[in-house]
Amino acid sequence: MKKLVPLFATLLIILMLVLATISQKQESAIMDEVAHIPAGYSYLTQKDMRLNPEHPPLLKNLSAIPLLFMKGIKFPDNLKSWKDEVNSQWDFGFNFLYNSNNDADKIIFTSRLPMLLLLILLGFFIYRWAKELYGKLAALMAVFLFVFSTTFIAHGRYVTTDVGAAFAFFIAAYFFIKWIKNSTEKNLILAGIFFGIAQLIKFSLFLLVPYFVILLLIWVYIKWRENKQGLFKLLIVNCLSLIVVLIIGYILIYPVYFFHTSNYPIQKQISDTNFIASQFPFKPIYKGLMWMVEKPILRPYAQYFLGLSMVFQRATGGNTTFFLGDVTNKGWKNYFPIVYAIKEPLALHVLTVIALLFLAWQVKFKSYEVKPRKVDLRGLTSKYFPEIAMLIFLAIYWGASITSNLNIGVRHILPTFPFIYILIAGQIKRIFNHIHNKKMFVVCGFALGFLLFWYAFSSLSVFPNYLTY
Predict the structure, then answer these.
(1) How far is 145 from 307, CA to CA, in rounded Å?
(2) Which ranges of 228-328 does DSSP label H, i.e. alpha helix?
(3) Cβ distance 37 to 107 under 8 Å?
(4) pLDDT tens digits for 222-276?
(5) Among positive and negative, which fits the CA dihedral 21, 27, 28, 33?
(6) What residues contact residue 200 under an 8 Å CB cut-off, 6+ apart?
(7) Distance between CA 133 and CA 181 in Å, rounded?
(8) Whole-number mean pLDDT of the chain?
(9) With 60 as the cut, is the pLDDT of residue 374 above it?
(10) Could you tell me the CA-to-CA distances from 109 to 18, 43, 401 in Å, in that order?
């Protein structure tokens, strides 16, 4: 049976791909795609990143690659929104898609296909990490929760950064934790490369920096207590390694942004940066960006940090939203908890509650296989470090989301979903490992089967209207 598990996981992921592909055919461009698709095409054909600088280029590039093989696409470089205006992405985007004799439907559909590649890659990595932690059956359950996620299917079809951000957070965390637990040069380099890739996907991935620092400090403390090594030496060695990870990542950013600014006229980039950055309330950022953009060798980093600053500005400034009868740009602390509760299937919430209750029971009475009421926190932290790392990520990301003024949809907390699926699957696996009574095992098996059926049915029954769900 277990030999068939990888096959079942693959078939599930293929099913998700089919559902996402077919269901997108009936949908026109969503608002973000009007900016992202033309911007990505301009990056590759013009080597000029004047449009949509508030998002890194990698996902937009990916969406534009198939367009390079389409004949007859016209690039309206005579428009005022391209030549003269500052980041006039919406005007240019509408004109590119609908007013330049381009086949908008074909461009939109073709641009979305590479986004589905990230979706299925995320599914395979969820299976891989869950299998390493809990075994094949738990990995299959984690993939099942992912495949029938209405939110992932809905947003995995679009040329946006949301699923890409989930993919990047997950992969970067996976390779960083892998390096922490096995500090080889290969793992160090991979951690740096995937950190850099993450920074090229979405600027919210900057949260990986404090996340990595916290994980490293916890790991240093663990090894110090376990091996009785010098704390200061451990701290210095690991901090230097973390710096190497960050350096590798930011070195990777440079050639990508260099390509995207190579045909961006210097004076145009300076004037655009001046116009955008002058609106930042923190003037040292404005001065730093202007100093950087005027240095030819630093122009790629100037464009990167301009986008990063724009995102921080937007997160603090907020976005006007309607929620529970109120309209404001200040945000609500209860926005994401309520949105998550009402937009995810009830079966997932039931499984979450079961997993949390069993976790609490283990901690109180079983102490994770340690003698009752004698909890060894050092052993607990070391043995279950990947799980604790996932919980820390959930705390950081949820904390940042709840305190942010940017409340524009459940898609913004998508990066937390893969970790939730794995943690739920792991606890369910432990529940069945703990059951020794055959009748109880069968009853729990039927209960789990019912919840998974309910979860899948709630997804399949709304096909193809996943976004409205």
Answers:
(1) 34
(2) 231-261, 266-277, 283-293, 299-317
(3) yes
(4) 888 777 667 888 899 999 999 999 999 999 999 999 999 999 999 999 999 999 9
(5) negative
(6) 56, 57, 58, 252, 253, 256
(7) 13
(8) 91
(9) no
(10) 14, 19, 31
pTM for the full model?
0.92
Packing angle of the helix pair 31-46, 89-98 (nearest 10 deg): 80
Q: Kind of pairing, strands 321-323 and 326-328?
A: antiparallel
Q: Which residues are CB-contacts of 465 (< 8 A; sequence separation ≥ 6)?
A: 23
Per-residue pLDDT, averaged over 24-33, amounts to 88
Segment (H or E) for 327: strand 326-328
**What φ, ψ does residue 321 adopt, rounded to 5°?**
-140, 145
Token duo for residue 203: 């600027």
Residue 368 has pLDDT above 50, yes or no: no
- Neighbouring-strand partners of residue 326: 323
The pLDDT value recorded for residue 205 is: 93
Q: Is 245 exposed, middle or buried (0-12, 13-18, 19+ CB in 10 A)?
A: buried
Residue 407 has what pLDDT? 86
C-alpha triplet 15, 17, 22: angle, nearest 5°: 100
**Around Cβ 255, how many Cβ atoms within 10 Å?**
10
Contact indicator for 392, 215 with CB cutoff of 8 Å: yes
Please give the structure tokens belonging to residue 38: 């033309």
Check pLDDT > 60 for residue 109: yes
**Proportion of the chain in helix, strand, coil states, percent, rounded to 5:** 75, 0, 25
Among candidate residues 134, 169, 90, 145, the one with its CA nearest the CA of residue 348: 145
**Residue 300 · residue 258 · CB < 8 Å:** yes
CA distance 188 to 198: 15
Cα 177 to Cα 166: distance, rounded to the nearest angstrom: 16
The structure tokens listed for 43 are 């990056």
Whose CA is closest to 321, among 425, 407, 206? Answer: 407
- Give residue 228's pLDDT: 65
Phi-psi region of 126 (alpha: psi -120 to 50; beta: other; left: phi over 0): alpha
Is-cis flag, bond preceding 464, omega within 30? yes
Around 218, how many Cα atoms within 13 Å sit in the side-chain half-sphere?
Answer: 23
Q: Enumerate the β-bridge partners of residue 328.
A: 321
Specify the length of the chain in residues.
Answer: 469
